User: Fold this.
Amino acid sequence: MSAAFLNTLEVMANGLMAGVLYALVALGFVLIYKASGIFNYAQGVMALFAAMTLVGAMEGRVPFSHLINAVFGTEVHHFGWHLPALLGIALTIAVMVFFAWVVQRVIFKHLVGQEPIILFMATIGLAYFMEGFGETMWGSDIKTLDVGLPQGGSFAIEDFTATWAAEGERYYGMYIDNLDMVATVVAILLVSALVLFSQYTKQGRAMRAVADDHQAALSVGINLNFIWVLVWSLAGFVALVAGIMWGSKSGVQFSLSLIALKALPVLMLGGFTSIPGAIVGGLIIGVGEKLFEFAIGPYVGGATENWFAYVLALIFLVFRPQGLFGEKIIERV
Amino acid sequence: MSVNDNEPYVTADGRKIGGVLMEMKNITLRFGGVKAITDISFDIREGEIRAIIGPNGAGKSSMLNVISGFYIPQEGEVWYKGAPRPQMKPYEVAQQGIARTFQNIALFEGMTVLDNVMTGRLNHMKTGLLAQAIWKGKAQAEEVENREVAEKIIDFLEIQHIRKTPVARLPYGLKKRVELARALAAQPSLLLLDEPMAGMNVEEKEDMSRFILDVNDEFGTTIALIEHDMGVVMDLSDRVVVMDYGKKIGDGTPDEVRNNQNVIDAYLGVAHD
Assistant:
């Protein structure tokens, strides 16, 4: 194989794995949108909040320490313990479930039957509140998250692929990030679990029913509030997974919440209502933007990754507004 | 023999009618200053087909919504299975074994007919979420059991040929039947039908009437239904409540109601002098 071909292959592999990370974020959007018709602007901030909580729990930081110190004149910062990753994750899941319950109880319970735009505005408010609340709780410094995931490139793959190049060509093997590979495996497991859940469990069926028709759901004995709390908890869990992956990669900081913006073109491609759509959309954008940067980038001065996804989404909006897998939009005239 | 005694009896066509299943006691429902229902009392007995009829705007649907928990009356009590029912949410009422259909059809449009009918079985699925994940066998056995009930009802209502069709694609008459199937799947103690024949042609009405009679006969389901088409109701029901302007103006067998002067006036209009 020629080195150029191997380089393209390497770019594609990296694109696929970047796509998986986009898909992880998009998944959180799809879950809430499917079950409640709410486009949750706060999904990115939820990922940030979950990652911050995980770091805080693992490092034994005292929540609201700045606030406490300022009010009481004390000097508390740490409890002085370090939790193992699994315990920290369990604790964070508990926090996200509690958060789901509060969001449902305080905000969306009172907005049942409102226009989608009102619900959307509510999630914008929620996003800004959470951002401030999270930073008050855990501080706004950049935190490093280490749950024991492997970092750096894989030497095994580099050594193995180095032998693929044709005789006489200079080729040093593919660079594949260990963390990206773990993220891919985790994402595949997560998506399989979610699909199995929504297709084959009682709660999954109830969730699909609630998404379709509230009144009918009530009449067959489904507790709407419970289902919504369940859905927000699931979205919180997905946010935590996305937060762990992105946080391990680039640190837990404010910009983590902006990954939500990267999920938008993914959703437009895949459709807002389809779990497989979120995955395929993520992969197309991941591979597309990496290949585009690799092939066209050098001629236009690079940095195409910043806009490629949005342009692709625009093209999709024109020709296929429901996305690749979204429910077809039919309206009677 | 008068049917208003609380003694079990057998109808002319051999169906067993039991004691009182549900009793509405002095129900009054207001929306702001408007009285939708004024001081109405009646009962529904086990195994019977009970109709609530009246002209448009008489408060029939409001009454059905009170029974199914969608509306909370300001005054009066609902007695169910011999005890007063505390204030409940609609989903709790459904869990108590009261299933319903809607005048404007409320189905899960994106799901197939079979999936819709299966949602009617949700309250019969006892296995918890963790058990479903860990102990697959038990959850599967339960699923099979519930699936059998659903398929039996689908057969019974003659909708096998559209089992896998998404509901959104079905014509109106079939949707009505799917909604009935979903309500039946819950194996309810009391089945509420809100204008089951609204918007149907004569043939569809005859089909629906037959299904309602068959359901009552085959499963012994107690049925309360609302209609404003008097002709259909008189052939179907054992007893009829007649409402007009939120008040009860008649209650009894179809024959008694048909000869009630108040009912004749309400339906035909009466000269004011």
Summary: The domain at 1-97+188-273 of chain B is CATH 3.40.50.300 (Rossmann fold). Chain B touches chain A at residues 68, 70, 89-92, 94-95, 99-100, 102, 106-111, 115, 118-120, 122-123, 125, 127, 129, 132-133, 139, 143, 182-183, 186 (CB under 8 Å). The two ends of chain B are 39 Å apart (CA to CA). Residues 136-156 of chain B form the longest helix (21 residues).
